[in-house]
Amino acid sequence: MTEKDKLDVLRRYSNGESVAQIARTISYSARMVAIWVNKAGIIRPRKTIPINKKLTAMELYEKGYKAKDLAAIFNVAESTIFEWGRKYKVSRPKTQYENKVHPFCPVIIDEFRRAGLRSRKYKLSDLGLELRCTRCKEYWPADTEFFPVESTLKSGLNSHCNACHSDYHNMRK
After folding, report:
1. DSSP assignment of 78-102, as one string?
2. CA neighbor of 85 nearest in space, from 122, 111, 119, 60
3. Domains of the chain: which residue ranges?
4. What single DSSP character describes residue 122?
5. 63-90 pLDDT, tens per residue?
6. If 0-12 CB within 10 Å is exposed, 13-18 middle and 19+ buried, where does residue 104 land?
7. Helices (H), 88-146
8. Strand, helix or coil at 128?
9. CB 5 within 8 A of CB 29
10. Residue 125 dihedral angles phi and psi, to the nearest 5°
């Protein structure tokens, strides 16, 4: 590579083009381009983003927009969005799985309850929401006191009540 080509690479880098972008257009590796840039001692100023844009991004992040989408909109890295979130103490809405069930004190959300009531898996009584045991066919309160925790299921509770569950395991021993 001639000195003129190296100078062109350095000019492109100082104008904001990444090492990878430059390497794609020439017949040298990104590592080689990085070595030339380091030897030349070129330091690009850090891109500063106005505070109002950061706050706008954090408002959208708090509303549930994905960090990947915000990074593309604001032309920053995804990790920068996470960093701003920590810096400005943004509370994200819970994901669909975080909203479903807490493993030790299940609170089954509406969509599960509605689907379960239609299929007669759940029923509402004066005790609250009850779950039907698939073994003894009786309804018990949908709680960890009556049903074992099953984290692989969407409801978070096993389909057998504690009594049937223990009978089943004692029978297998």
Report:
1. HHHHHHHHHHTTPPPPPPHHHHH--
2. 60
3. 3-40, 51-87, 97-172
4. E
5. 888 888 888 888 887 888 888 888 888 8
6. exposed
7. 96-100, 110-118
8. strand
9. no
10. -135, -175
